[in-house]
Automatic annotation (TrEMBL):
Residue intervals of the VWFA domain: 255-437
Gene this protein is translated from: CACNA2D3
TM region(s), chain numbering: 7-27
Organism field: Zonotrichia albicollis
Protein name listed in UniProt: Calcium voltage-gated channel auxiliary subunit alpha2delta 3
InterPro entries: Ca_channel_alpha-2/delta, VDCC_a2/dsu, VWA_N, VWF_A, vWFA_dom_sf
């Protein structure tokens, strides 16, 4: 028993020593925790908040403006916007505008067809026309070149000051065509009669821009006349017949299977020509078409194995995907065409029964260097007697041994046969099939009006570097009775409609601060939407490859089930609501709101229109009332401006009005000096009201500027206001040359001014802030090295004190960042102790003080370089804790229009062959090699053009379209203050976060003695969404709902199918060809 007692005492002593040591260590760890008093931080936040709000309110004049609107409160009528009625009215306006454009095109069709009917072809016709490339060009002796007579060009503001001739059109002929070919000369001659119609159309509708006629022979007549410049190689590759507007107008939708022979005989240049032929066929397919490509030898090889047995929509992404796979084709084995034909017919038949394709024309394109049979048993089984599937055959190479079989196959199946001997022949020969497919439409004499999706016209580049267009086009037919069964297509006429013309019909003031209008095509692609971003690399303004086929679901991505998209594609009229996350400020901030969407179709077009209205103040509008005399008086102030991109008055209708600003137009309209001006009376009445109510602020700002004791250090530089009618007032407290941010509120700063798509950023953010408080931010610079050195503060002015009140205006100031930060550091040195000795200060090295905004961006830091950074990148542990505590929340966003850097293999072989000169040289080398093969016993061909076919592979970093996911962060409004401790490796890190009163700002004070390096920073960097092969396949196969064009002209019983192509054989004396070949061999 005593032994046990001794053992217990010994254990007790050991335990006491251990416990003492443990507690000492624990005290050391806890002692490393810096205790930051919340009361002191609250004092600092209160002092800074009061000071900065006093400055913002004083210099912006917010209280004065709020008071002035309150004085008119009883005299205004508040209305809730009826979204359905609004979208129907807008659709009607657009319908009328589109109808005017299509009528102009119809007049061109009638004039062209009448002119051709009266013309008799003259093979010897000599006619000097204005060639768009040669006009005003002189030879060495100073004489005008042939077809290059003097052509007067004058800069015209309607065409972005391009030098044009508004009296005449001129003619562009592709480089690979002869300017004086009889077919071209005759076509140019009879189409001269279009000049007077071009001019008449422009007189009737001065908002028209380019009008043109694209001939089936290849020339392009354009009005107004303009000078065309070749590229650096002296080439103009433009061929109107390869443009979407031409192809859509000339043909009906089609399902196409392309069969490519990859047997051993196709080695070398033949396979290169075959690949380029496939690529050219793909160029002629549009969004209403469907296709697949099968390579064959003794087996079938789907170019995209995932799409075995089906067809896909011929959108740009799918066509590019197949082009990439074409490079993987190589020639070997024996060609078994019968297997390929059976597969193609079965696939077209099965796909047609699914109801997914064009349900119109069907075709098989056969690209081969020969066929040993006519395969009539296969055609009899699948295609006769109706011949619903047309067969187009392309004989690759110069031999004509198998030409008869291929021509028979085409002629027996209402197709066309052509022979392609060189790369230079490809495009012209591929085009032939379009004219065959156009025959039924021509015989029916159906002048279907077609509209293209949005595309960029680089000719009319504006300040932003782009002009988005849609084209309305119609086909032109021969009306001669003797050629009726041949279905001769003369060409296509069209005119371009800038998308901004659509936006002019939309009263932005009716849509509210966050509201917008958008339109989509029958395929669900965006025609116009404020979130459409067609360019990348700001400053360089490069087009994204897929900008014209961005689907509505890619910008309204919160609608996961495509309810809105599908309803609009199906031309429904209705309403849809959902919570959305709209990014602003270069995508770095997010506004979460609920949108109500209203939609309907635009009759006479394939487009549907939608309007988005944000709930709350975004759905209310108010009408004020003042006299014209009062309003005009207050519009005269020099600080008043109006939104340039809003349409208060239509200044495009008459040339004499085009130089007017919108403000000038309103004044002249109201004074009766311009009775022909068409103006929005309702909008102008509200502009007058806003001008009267906001006028006193000008005198207020002036008095502040004149008081030298005020703003002595010139910290506040600019005061500004904007109203719901696009009216702006600006006051400078410093000279223009002294402004820190020279671009602010100018046309260069698109995000901070009223434009056709949106209200200014400072207006939109202020509207979502608690009434009476200011929102502060640092403008994000596009260049990482150029730190912003100003702070913008703005607040919203509401008419009433509830959520149903419309936000009538927003006011704000811009101040120097150094001035703003100085106010913060001064406030952070205050303390409540009687002796003035502060227990803690932001000057202490033991703590770090930050000022961040509601999205987590740093406005003030002891390290100036951190200004503008996301807080999580600097204090990852603290930001992580704030997220877990609910002080901030992470919002996941998606960008389906992103561009990602990727390493790609580049090859100099096939692409170099596409240059006209390389193509010609390669073709000559190939022909010569074929001749030499008769004289030598080894394969000279492989040696001869190895430099052209061997791929010089190297990795090249490029930007490619991709999908990305990235976070944004928003503070929780209900949490005003928070304290926390973070367990790090060997210490606890404490922090305090305190909201700055009447602002969107937070002061964050962080212990600087405990380092949490184990917790990584939180970044906002986007992460590419990578799809595995099976998911990629599913995405390729999945087809979103689309609406087919209403008309289809696949066949006509009167069609004359006897004109189905011929052989253009090559012949040359061996001695003449062999001599240059031998010279070249010895010169190598």
């Amino acid at each position: 028993m005593p032994e046990n007692l001794n053992l217990l005492r010994a254990f007790g002593g050991f335990f006491f020593i251990f416990w003492t040591a443990f507690n000492t260590a624990l005290v050391d760890v806890v002692g490393s925790e810096q205790q930051i008093p919340l009361s002191v931080v609250k004092l600092w936040a209160s002092a800074f908040g009061g000071e900065i709000k006093s400055i913002a309110a004083k210099y912006s004049g917010s209280q004065l403006l709020q008071k002035k609107y309150k004085e008119y409160e009883k005299d205004v009528a508040i209305e809730e916007i009826d979204g359905l009625q609004l979208v129907k009215k807008l659709a009607k306006n657009m319908e009328e505008m589109f109808h005017k454009k299509s009528e102009a095109v119809r007049r061109l069709v009638e004039a062209a067809e009448d002119a051709y009917l009266k013309h008799e072809f003259d093979a010897d016709l000599q006619y000097e026309y204005f060639n768009a490339v040669l006009i005003n060009e002189r030879d060495e002796e100073g004489n005008y070149l042939e077809l290059g007579k003097e052509f007067i060009l004058v800069p015209n503001d309607h065409f972005n000051n391009l030098p044009v001739n508004i009296s005449l059109s001129d003619v562009q002929v592709p480089t690979n065509m002869y300017n004086k070919d009889p077919a071209i000369v005759n076509g140019v001659y009879w189409s001269e009669s279009l000049n007077k119609v071009f001019v008449d159309n422009f007189d009737r509708d001065p908002s028209l821009i380019w009008q043109y006629f694209g001939s089936a022979k290849g020339f392009f007549r354009q009005y107004p006349g303009i000078k065309w410049e070749p590229d650096e190689n002296g080439v103009i590759a433009f061929d109107c017949r390869n443009r979407k507007w031409y192809i859509q107008a000339a043909t009906s939708p089609k399902d196409v299977v392309i069969l490519v022979d990859v047997s051993g005989s196709m080695k070398g240049l033949r396979l290169t020509i075959a690949k380029q032929t496939v690529s050219s066929i793909l160029d002629t397919l549009g969004d209403d078409d469907f296709f697949n490509i099968i390579a064959y030898n003794e087996e079938l090889h789907y170019v995209e194995p995932c799409l075995n047995g089906t067809l896909v929509q011929a959108d740009r992404a799918n066509k590019e995907h197949f082009r990439e796979h074409l490079d993987k084709l190589f020639a070997k084995g024996i060609g078994m065409l019968d297997i390929a034909l059976n597969e193609a017919f079965n696939m077209l038949n099965e796909f047609n029964h699914t109801g997914q394709g064009s349900i119109c024309s069907q075709a098989i394109m056969l690209i081969t260097d020969g066929a040993v049979d006519t395969y009539d048993t296969i055609f009899a089984k699948y295609n006769w007697p109706d011949r619903k599937v047309r067969i187009f055959t392309y004989l690759i190479g110069r031999e004509a041994a198998f030409a008869d079989n291929l021509k028979w196959m085409a002629c027996a199946n209402k197709g066309f046969f052509t022979q392609i001997s060189t790369l230079a022949d490809v495009q012209e020969n591929v085009m032939e099939y379009l004219h065959v497919l156009s025959r039924p439409k021509v015989i029916d004499q159906e002048h279907d009006v077609v509209w293209t999706e949005a595309y960029i016209d680089s000719t009319l580049a504006d300040d932003q570097g782009l002009v988005l267009m849609t084209t309305v086009a119609m086909p032109v037919f021969s009306k001669q009775n003797e050629t009726r069964s041949k279905g001769i297509l003369l060409g296509v006429v069209g005119t371009d409609v800038p998308v901004k013309e659509l936006l002019k019909t939309i009263p932005k003031y009716k849509l509210g601060i966050h509201g917008y209008a958008f339109a989509i095509t029958n395929n669900g692609y965006i025609l116009t939407h404020p979130e459409l971003r067609p360019l990348y690399e700001e400053g360089k303004k490069r087009r994204k490859p897929n900008y014209s086929s961005v689907d509505l679901s890619e910008v309204e991505w919160e609608d996961r089930d495509d309810v809105l998209r599908n309803a609009m594609v199906n031309r429904k009229t209705g309403k849809f609501s959902m919570e959305v996350k709209k990014t602003v400020d270069k995508g770095k901030r997010v506004l979460v709101m609920t949108n109500d969407y209203y939609y309907t179709d635009i009759k006479g077009t394939p487009f549907s229109l939608g309007v988005a209205l944000s709930r709350g103040h975004g759905k209310y509008f108010f009408r004020g009332n003042v006299t014209v005399e009062e309003g005009l008086h207050d519009l005269e102030h020099p600080d008043v401006s109006l939104a340039d991109e809003w349409s208060y008055c239509n200044t495009d209708l008459h040339p004499e009005h085009r130089q007017m600003t919108q403000l000038e137009a309103i004044k002249r309209y109201l004074t009766g000096k311009e009775p022909l001006l068409q103006c929005d009376k309702e909008l102008i009445q509200e502009v007058l009201f806003d001008a009267v109510v906001s006028a006193p602020i000008e005198a207020y700002w002036t008095s502040l500027a004149l008081n030298k004791s005020e703003n002595s250090d010139k910290g506040v530089e600019v005061a500004f206001l904007g109203t719901r009618t696009g009216l702006s007032r600006i006051n400078l407290f410093v000279g223009p040359e002294q402004l820190t941010n020279q671009d602010f509120l100018t046309a260069e700063d698109k995000e901070n001014i009223f434009n056709a798509d949106h209200f200014p950023l400072w207006y939109r953010r202020a509207a979502e802030q608690i009434p009476g408080s200011f929102v502060y931010s640092i403008p994000f610079s596009t260049e990482t090295s150029n730190k912003s050195n100003v702070v913008t503060a703005s607040t919203a002015i509401q008419l009433l004190d509830d959520r149903k009140s419309p936000v009538v205006a927003a006011v704000g100031i811009q101040m120097k960042l150094e001035f703003f930060q100085r106010k913060f550091w001064t406030a952070s040195r205050q303390c409540a102790s009687l002796d003035g000795r502060c227990a803690i200060s932001c000057d202490d090295e033991t703590i770090n003080c930050y000022l961040i905004d509601n999205n987590g961006f740093i406005l003030v830091s002891e390290d100036y370089q951190q200004t503008g950074y996301f807080f999580g990148e600097v204090e990852g542990a603290v930001m992580n804790k704030l997220l877990s505590m609910g002080s901030f929340k992470r919002i996941t966003l998606y960008d389906y229009q992103a561009m990602c850097r990727t390493n790609k293999e580049s090859s100099d072989s096939a692409h170099s062959l596409l240059d006209p000169y390389n193509a010609f040289f390669a073709a000559v080398k190939w022909i010569m090699t074929e001749l030499v093969l008769f004289l030598v016993e080894f394969n000279l061909c492989s040696w001869w053009h190895s430099d052209l076919t061997a791929k010089a592979q190297r990795l090249k970093q490029t930007l490619e379209p991709c999908d990305t996911e990235y976070p944004a962060f928003v503070s929780e409004r209900t949490i005003k203050e928070t304290t926390g401790n973070i367990a790090c490796d060997d210490c606890f890190k404490s922090f305090v976060i305190q909201q700055i009163p009447s602002s969107n700002l937070f002061m964050v004070v962080v212990d600087n003695e405990c380092f949490c390096d184990s917790i990584p920073p939180i970044t906002m960097a986007p992460i590419e969404i990578r799809y595995n092969e099976s998911l990629k396949c599913e995405r390729l196969k999945s087809q979103k709902i689309r609406r087919r064009p209403e008309s289809c002209h696949g066949f006509h019983p009167e069609e004359n199918a006897r004109e189905c192509g011929g052989v253009s054989g090559l012949s040359a004396k061996p001695s003449l060809v062999l001599l240059p070949l031998l010279l070249m061999i010895f010169s190598r």
